[in-house]
Amino acid sequence: MTWLVTGGAGYIGSHVVGAMQAAGHEVVVLDDLSSGVEARLAGVPLVVGSVLDQAGVERALRDHSVRGVVHLAGKKQVEESVRRPLHYYEQNVEGLRRLLDAITAAGVEHFVFSSSAAVYGAPDEEQVTEELFCRPVNPYGETKLIGEWMVAAVARATGLRYANLRYFNVAGAAVPTLADTGESNLVPMVFRRLSDRRPPLIFGDTYPTPDGTCVRDFVHVADIASAHVSAAQALTAGRVRDLTANIGTGQGVSVRDVVETIRSVTGTADESWSEPVVVGARAGDPPRVVASAERIRAELGWKAQHDVRDMVASAWEGWVAHSGR
Ligand SMILES: NC(=O)c1ccc[n+]([C@@H]2O[C@H](COP(=O)([O-])OP(=O)(O)OC[C@H]3O[C@@H](n4cnc5c(N)ncnc54)[C@H](O)[C@@H]3O)[C@@H](O)[C@H]2O)c1
Question: Domains of the chain (ranges plus CATH)?
Answer without folding.
Answer: 2-169+219-247 (3.40.50.720), 171-216+250-323 (3.90.25.10)
